[in-house]
Amino acid sequence: MRHGDKIKNLSRTASHRKALLSNLAIQLITHKKIVTTLAKAKALRTYVEPLITKAKENTTHQRRIVFSHLQDKAAITELFGPIAEKIAGRPGGYTRIIKLGARVGDNAETALIELVDYNEIYGKGKGEVKEAGKKTRRAGGRKKAGDTRTEATETTKTAEEPKTEEKAAE
User: Would you say residue 136 lies in a domain?
Assistant: First the structure.
């Protein structure tokens, strides 16, 4: 039984798995998207998302923690620079996995894993930080002086009033 065993071993030893995930994370940070097998993409997501979260806070301590996982100065610079700026307003879910189908050689399920904020097709205009004051209220609220709905109802009421007076005069 495998109760509570949530780590995806990927049929590798611990040291091989650590090196694999580190290299995949470096390539994802450098190129913003990579194509790999579905199992590796799912394992990579759980590995790289905490590192991206740590990159939001640009301190020496956080840089050293991330560097202990990645061991690549260029990737750290990229992660704490442009990537951290783009994901600053996002509370989580920094990666997206898109299934691509079976690979020709060995019929393995392939997938594209990418950083969400760097896709121009899906994320049109979503790279900016959203303002907190733009929330809509479903319950309505009090009417404003320039509200078009109240003006429209007032004009229909004034148009109906003379007709009722004419009918009362007859």
Answer: no
Place of tokens 């060995």: 106
The sign of the torsion formed by the CA atoms of 95, 98, 99, 104 equals negative
Q: Is residue 144 part of a domain?
A: no
> Which CATH number does the domain housing residue 39 bear?
3.90.1030.10
pLDDT digits (tens, 9 = 90+) for 57-115: 999 999 999 999 999 999 999 999 999 999 999 999 999 999 999 999 999 999 999 99
Q: Which amino acid, 21?
A: L
Residue 146 lies in a domain: no
Residue 158: inside a domain, yes or no?
Answer: no
The percentage of residues in the chain with a pLDDT greater than 90, rounded to a whole number, is: 65
**DSSP SS3 for 78:** helix
Residue type, 94: Y
Taking residue 39's Cβ as centre, other Cβ atoms within 10 Å add up to 15
Total number of domains in the chain: 1
Burial of 28 (0-12, 13-18, 19+ CB in 10 A): buried
Determine the Cα–Cα distance for residues 115 and 28; give it in Å rounded to an integer.
8
Order of strands, edge to edge, in the sheet holding 95-102? 33-37, 109-115, 95-102
Question: What whole-number distance in Å separates Cα of residue 107 and Cα of residue 15?
Answer: 27
Write out the residue range of the structural domain in which residue 63 sits. Answer: 14-129
User: Residue 41 is encoded by which pair of tokens?
Assistant: 């993409």
